[in-house]
Specification:
Helix content: 25-40%
Largest sheet: 7 strands, mixed
CATH superfamily of the largest domain: ATPase, nucleotide binding domain
Number of helices: 15
CATH class of the largest domain: Alpha Beta
CATH architecture of the largest domain: 2-Layer Sandwich
Strand content: 15-25%
Radius of gyration: 22 Å
Structural class: alpha/beta
Number of strands: 25
Length: 482
């Protein structure tokens, strides 16, 4: 029996790890999943880390699981994608010292020390905060000098995974955009930013284009996985950009990527920034384009965790069914989403409903409130994105697990007045974006994704009233935060 040609795609998200075996025509043949293992670092007020060696063992285990499920395949290429802003620092021998995810804020105490923030925004395309990688390095240097002194280089998490498969260092451009040490317009490391953060340029690895072949898989890793030694390792990129890549958008399209967080993005062919510094601009994995972005924060993670509370043993189809049965909204929520023009996040949130508690209040009401909070937060950021770069097209592309909910898609269509389009790649868009890059690297023609469904705006007289109710709820929790 002839083995099917396939790729191994590693996806390190904020909440979980996925390793998938994907055929060259974009079919997922096997997949392994596990939660991302984090630890709290009590030397800081808000620091989270992971142990790279433990993560690597999880990746190998999930890869074996996915390969076993896939059956008879020949792995031609391996690639990786990961959460943005997360990094792994390594010593001179290539040994990983520490992993710092995107939710690590060990550099927050030094944000105020940074001068020339306008210059940083102009060069890096984002307002400098502890979310970004340079501040993680600063925090490590200031509190853990014994570790920092050993740091010879650092990489994004996906680039480190590729290093573990190939033995070749690198930093892909969409990932480098998240470091504050990279000149997005010039597509190069910025020595002025390196100097501003008082770091050494020697820790910067070579920059790599997405789709670049790093080389063959390390033989002993191929042996551990039982795959052929002729498999090559292909440079992937950030999870948001790979999700966009799989949607095959046109210039000036707007795309919503509903994952742990929800980036609202626009594909542009020139370097655009916001005079009020509310948006981010990054390199795309397609080297001809940039990604202009506003981000609604941890919307998807909120939904996932509330599902575990209210619907621990039911699937999403049960939620959708119960939502259809609601005759009106009995509950509003504000759960810490981000709005582009707000200087600080809302750190206190919750639900608002009439008391005493009515017999009409059901678990579906709480999920409705979570989804409406997501939709309104996305809409607010969409509005700001349009102020920076107008959106004339009558549709918005969407992908990611959150878009499994037709109700959320309908909310977005009603709020924006645009139709919401989903391609048949939308559920596993990040993984399939990795497979698309492998095809490009090996000069295999990609199967074009098809339009799966389009959700059009409804004439719903309740939309404006519900939107204003949400704004009032968010305003209340912003005051509580203060």
């Amino acid at each position: 029996m002839k083995q099917k040609r396939a790729y191994l795609v590693v996806d390190i998200g904020t909440g979980n790890i996925r390793v998938a075996v994907v055929s060259t025509d974009g079919k997922i043949l096997g997949i392994g999943r596990e939660n991302m293992p984090y630890h709290r670092d009590n030397r800081y007020q808000d620091a989270i880390y992971f142990l790279p060696d433990d993560l690597w063992q999880l990746i190998l285990g999930l890869a074996n699981q996915a390969l076993s499920e896939a059956g008879e395949v020949h792995i031609n290429a391996i690639t990786a994608t990961s959460q943005r802003e997360g990094i792994v620092v390594c010593n001179v021998d290539g040994q990983a010292l520490l992993g710092m995810p995107n939710i690590d804020h060990r550099g927050r105490a030094w944000e105020g020390n940074l001068t020339e923030k306008d210059l940083v925004y102009h060069i890096s395309g984002r307002y400098p905060t502890s979310l970004f990688s340079a501040f993680k390095l600063v925090g490590l240097r200031e509190v853990c000098p014994e570790i920092f002194q050993q740091v010879a280089t650092f990489m994004s998490i996906s680039d480190w995974v590729q290093y573990m498969f190939s033995g070749v260092y690198g930093y892909e451009h969409s990932q480098a955009s998240e470091t504050l040490l990279y000149d997005v317009a010039e597509k190069s490391w910025s020595m002025s930013m390196v100097k501003l953060f008082d770091l050494s340029a020697t820790i910067l690895p070579p920059l790599r284009d997405a789709g670049f072949i790093l080389g063959p898989i390390i033989p002993y890793v191929a042996e551990q996985l039982g795959i052929a030694s002729d498999a090559v390792v292909v440079v992937g990129g950030s999870d948001t950009q790979l999700a966009i890549h799989s949607m095959v958008p046109s210039p000036d399209d707007i795309l919503i990527v509903s994952g742990t967080t929800t980036p609202i993005t626009k594909l542009v062919d020139t370097y655009e920034t916001d005079k009020q510094q509310r948006t981010w601009t990054s390199r795309h994995t397609d080297t001809d384009y940039f990604i202009l972005e506003a981000n609604a924060g941890v919307t998807g993670l909120n939904y996932q965790r509330l599902k575990e509370i209210f619907y621990p043993n039911e699937g999403y189809e049960v939620i959708e069914s119960e939502l259809k049965g609601l005759d009106s909204a009995h509950c509003m929520a504000s759960l810490g989403s981000l709005i582009a023009d707000e200087g600080a996040p809302v750190t206190t949130g919750g639900f608002v409903f009439p008391v005493p508690v009515s017999h009409e209040l059901k678990r579906a009401d709480f999920v409705f409130a979570v989804m409406w909070d997501m939709a309104c937060s996305i809409y607010e950021n969409y509005r700001f994105l349009c102020q920076v770069s107008p959106h004339e097209k009558p549709y918005i592309w969407a992908c990611g697990g959150g878009m499994e909910s037709l109700r959320l898609c309908q909310f977005l269509a009603n709020l924006t007045g645009k139709s919401i389009r989903l391609r048949d790649t939308f559920r596993q868009s990040t993984v399939l974006g990795g497979a698309f890059l492998c095809n490009q690297a090996l000069q295999v023609e990609n199967v074009a994704p098809e339009l799966l469904r389009e959700i059009f705006p409804e004439k719903d007289v309740q939309v404006e009233a519900l939107y204003q109710a949400w704004k009032s709820t968010r305003k209340f929790y912003k005051q509580v935060t203060k």
